[in-house]
Design a protein that fits this description.
By secondary structure, this protein is of the alpha/beta class.
């Protein structure tokens, strides 16, 4: 007779309890453990004064998230020179007023923005394992997957109008400028590559020769966008979308990026090289989650204060 081996009841109970404790931590604590990341990037022309940039990304606001709103409001105390919003502000069609309330104090500062897929469309309940399957198959978003049917359309137009009224510059497949007391800045932005709304051909041509400094801005850091920015001579690109992997393994890191970017660059500052040109890339891990997966593990929610300094 073949022996049958089972898992002892105590071990099963212990694994179940550990998994439950991890879920409680990931949803009840870490997803609300907001952090400020500080990064220095040496990209400005020699002799130019430092610039302090607050990058806000992937808020994924849901109604009733008072702690997140209050934390975002408090960031105005950092007094940045300007704000860059890299999209996915919404995870609830009814949350536009709460997004605007949260960002209200920051909208008193100069700013630029692009939108992400969750600004346009409401999220759907998905099996998290599908992200691993899509990574293995090289499919992400609408890049290789079938078009989404029956998507919820978010009321993003009101959010856009409020940003514009505050003086924030819309960078949806276009270029824009900010005139600051210490510098004239230019920006080149793309709509979200995750849903194939990016149109780099409309903005190609490289940095603005009349500006003191030009940076690229995009929501999802797909390689085609990073390649285009870098080949055109941009020294800095800001992006979001990845959530830093969201559910990470301690001492190992992220398993997925939800795009074709490698996991080594899923968040924080790195570089991107095309031929003989290299640009700095900063990917924000964001400060929210999809409303259907409100958990983070080994990847706290964050906003980044970047200090741009002169090249050595």
């Amino acid at each position: 007779m073949r022996a049958r081996y089972g898992i002892p009841l105590k071990i099963t109970a212990g694994l179940t309890a550990t998994a439950a404790a991890g879920l409680v931590y990931a949803a009840g604590f870490e997803a609300r453990s907001f952090r400020l990341r500080r990064v220095t990037v040496p990209v400005l022309p020699p002799g130019m004064s430092d610039l302090r940039v607050l990058q806000v990304s992937d808020i994924h606001m849901v109604g009733g998230q008072g702690k997140k709103r209050a934390w975002l409001q408090s960031l105005a105390g950092l007094r940045p020179d300007f704000v860059v919003n890299t999209g996915d502000n919404l995870s609830d069609p009814d949350a536009v007023p709460e997004v605007l309330d949260a960002l209200g104090p920051l909208m008193e500062f100069p700013g630029v923005y692009v939108f992400g897929s969750n600004d346009y469309y409401g999220p759907r309940l998905r099996n998290p394992a599908r992200y691993l399957m899509e990574k293995a198959q090289g499919r992400h978003g609408l890049n290789g997957n079938k078009p989404v049917v029956g998507a919820v359309h978010n009321p993003w137009e009101g959010m856009r109008d409020a940003f514009d009224a505050a003086g924030w510059v819309n960078l949806t497949n276009t270029r824009g400028r900010l005139k600051l007391p210490q510098a004239n800045l230019a920006f080149t932005g793309l709509d979200d590559p995750h849903i194939k709304r990016d149109r780099y051909e409309r903005v190609a041509g490289g940095p603005d020769a009349e500006a003191d400094f030009t940076m690229g801005v995009v929501h999802a850091p797909y390689l085609r966008s990073l390649d285009a920015f870098t080949a055109d001579g941009y020294e800095l690109v800001l992006a979001g979308h990845t959530h830093g992997g969201q559910l990470c393994i301690p001492f190992y890191g992220a398993l997925v990026t939800n795009c074709d970017l490698d996991t080594d660059r899923v968040k924080g500052l790195s570089t991107h090289t095309v031929a003989d040109r290299t640009s700095y890339l900063h990917v924000s891990a964001g400060c929210g989650t999809n409303r259907f997966t409100p958990v983070r593990f080994a990847c706290p929610p964050e906003v980044t204060l970047l200090t741009l300094t002169a090249r050595g």
